[in-house]
Amino acid sequence: MDLIFLIDKMKQPGFYPHPVQEPIELIQTHISYVFLTGDYVYKIKKPVNLGFLDFSTLELRQHFCLQELQMNKPNAPEVYLEVLPISQTGDNFILGGNGQIVEYTLKMRQFPQEALLIEMFEQGKLQESHMEELGLTVARFHAQAQTNDYIRSFGKPAQIREAIDNNYWQTQKYIGGPQTQQQYEETKKYTDKFFAQNQELLTQRLQNNRIKECHGDLHLRNICFWHDKIQLFDRIEFNQQFRFVDVMYDVAFTVMDLEARGAKKLANAFLNTYLDQTGDWEGLQVLPLYLSRQAYVRAKVNSFLLDDHNIPEAAKQEAQATASDYYRLAWEYTKSRKGSLMLTSGLSGSGKTTVARYLARYLGAIHLRSDVLRKNLAGISLEQRGGDELYTPAMTQKTYQRLLELGIKLANLGFPVILDAKYDKLALRGEVIAQANSYRLPVQIIHCIAPESVLRDRLLSRTNDVSDATADLIEQQQAAAEAFTDAEKSLVISLDTTQEWKSKLVGS
Questions:
Q1: pTM of structure
Q2: Cα 301 from Cα 297, distance rounded (Å)
Q3: DSSP secondary structure string, 405-443?
Q4: Contact 316, 303 (CB under 8 A)
Q5: Is 307 exposed, middle or buried (0-12, 13-18, 19+ CB in 10 A)?
Q6: How many domains does the chain have?
Q7: Which of 385, 378, 376 is nearest to 406 (CA)?
Q8: 412 near 441, Cβ under 8 Å?
Q9: Is 118 helix (H, G, I), strand (E, B) or coil?
């Protein structure tokens, strides 16, 4: 079969048994041809063997078309429709038909291209609210994702390392092109060191069931906001090693893709929402490894286009520049950073979480909220209202201890961390300050205040909030709060959250 001839036929309206929107648009990736016809999309897989995938035979292409349909239909049932044969009779190619089957195509419903998150981003329409919904969607997807002994076996340190080392092996030829020798050597040195020092951590991830059948390619071109909901599609079907992965592998792809486009606030909104929903803050210990890995994979994929004879020269020049940017980003993710700690203080309704969320977006910080950690420790959903047992002195102490433990661990990894809680007791604040000082971590206190009438109004008007605080607690909290000591005052920024407060935090 002449593939070029088939591609030409599929660009013609007469090939399809339904009306099409002309001209038919062809999108080409390193492994697929995708035809946009108006109401439907048809995808055929290129007859290639790249080592990490093998579509070299008709039987393999049929198998992986069916696999792609089966794996993606649960997440995007309105998008994925069926697999159809393409037959040939003489010089004619027919969709379906009774002739000799020469190819298979995956038929999907075409949604507007502007529904893709990448298009929404480029048009300036992608908002933090979309990222928060994405965080919820991915958290639910991972909660339902399958795992078993076989899938978990892909989380063995040696297995993970093999996949990452393969990326280096496959891209050596691009050193001196889009990749520099320094970037290559230093990026690889980082991963070598990570695996040498973190065998136990990676094994814990496996034992804690964080290795699941994930998406594997969760970037903005594979996510859409259609029919008023986030939908994930184009899940990796061709390689188990790319799909049976740590859940943070998926998260890292989305975070990296946003950060590569300069959208760090959107990335932060997605990441913190996901962490709140899953409680997987320990996963941040492996996030830098996977951020670098995902950027490197995007670099590799774009590098492969340089070797494709069917790609126009202008497209190759663009691919070279894109690959170069991603190689640089993969290298930058390996650089050590200085972490910091900030803790909020103030009564319920004083605006602590609003301020902390703003700071998290501005600083790229991990936002640890006591209300979230408390329910996570109790094993109840964030939407569920907590009973009295959630607010005993013992549970409160346990919550603050967890805040401190996570805060110090993550700050020592180089993350800015915000501990969002009342911190109304000298002993609780003192413990954070002492620990931060012992690790030479910068520490600051953000004290939020508002008139009592405002506190009451805010608490009475709260809906769909993880906090269970009510207005009748205000007097009790006021009486229990302990004033800042002279030593603490040098660390305090006080904000009246009924006034303009954001400018006071710039540079903090």
A1: 0.92
A2: 6
A3: HHHHHHHHTT-EEEEES---SHHHHHHHHHHHHHTT--E
A4: no
A5: exposed
A6: 3
A7: 376
A8: yes
A9: helix
73, 126: one domain:
no
Q: What is the mean pLDDT of residues 292-314?
A: 91
State whether 380 and 272 are in the same domain.
Answer: no
Nearest Cα neighbor of 166 from 11, 19, 297 is 297
Q: Write the CATH number for 157.
A: 3.90.1200.10
Q: In which residue are the tokens 């001839």 written?
A: 5
Per 3-state DSSP, the chain is made up of helix, strand and coil in percentages (nearest 5) of: 55, 15, 30
- Last residue within a domain, chosen from 310, 332, 354: 332
Q: Which pLDDT belongs to residue 124? A: 97
List the end-to-end C-alpha distance of the chain, in Å, as a whole number. 65
For 19, 88, 279, 400, the CA distances from 381, given in Å and listed in that order, are: 48, 55, 11, 19
Which structural domain, as residue segments, surrounds residue 425? 340-505
Same domain as 302, residue 352? no
- Tokens encoding 507: 């540079």
Q: Are 135 and 272 in contact (CB under 8 A)?
A: yes
Q: What is the DSSP letter of 54?
A: B
At position 301, the amino acid (one-letter code) is V
Q: How far apart are alpha carbons 277 and 432 in whole angstroms? A: 25
Tell me how far apart the alpha carbons of residues 461 and 483 are, in angstroms, rounded to a whole number: 28
Nearest-angstrom CA–CA distance, 181 and 177: 10
What average pLDDT score do residues 179-200 get?
97
Q: Is the pLDDT of residue 332 over 70?
A: yes
Report the SS3 class of residue 312. coil
Long-range contacts: 73-79, Cβ < 8 Å, 24+? 75/141, 75/215, 75/231, 75/232, 75/233, 75/235, 76/224, 76/231, 76/232, 76/233, 78/109, 78/226, 78/227, 78/231, 79/108, 79/109, 79/111, 79/226, 79/231, 79/233
277 with 382: CB under 8 angstroms? yes
Cα–Cα distance measured from residue 388 to residue 118, given in angstroms and rounded to the nearest whole number: 45
pLDDT (average), residues 162-191: 96
- CB neighbours of 35 closer than 8 A, spacing ≥ 6? 10, 11, 24, 25, 26, 27, 41, 42, 43
Q: At what angle do helices 247-260 and 264-278 cross, to 10 degrees?
A: 160
For the stretch 112-132, pLDDT in tens is 999 999 999 999 999 999 999
CA distance 172 to 222: 28
Residues 6+ apart with CB under 8 A from 212: 142, 145, 146, 147, 151, 244, 245, 247
In a shared domain, residues 74 and 171: no
Q: What is the pLDDT of residue 1?
A: 64
CB 218, CB 232: distance < 8 Å: yes
Q: Is the pLDDT of residue 508 over 50?
A: no
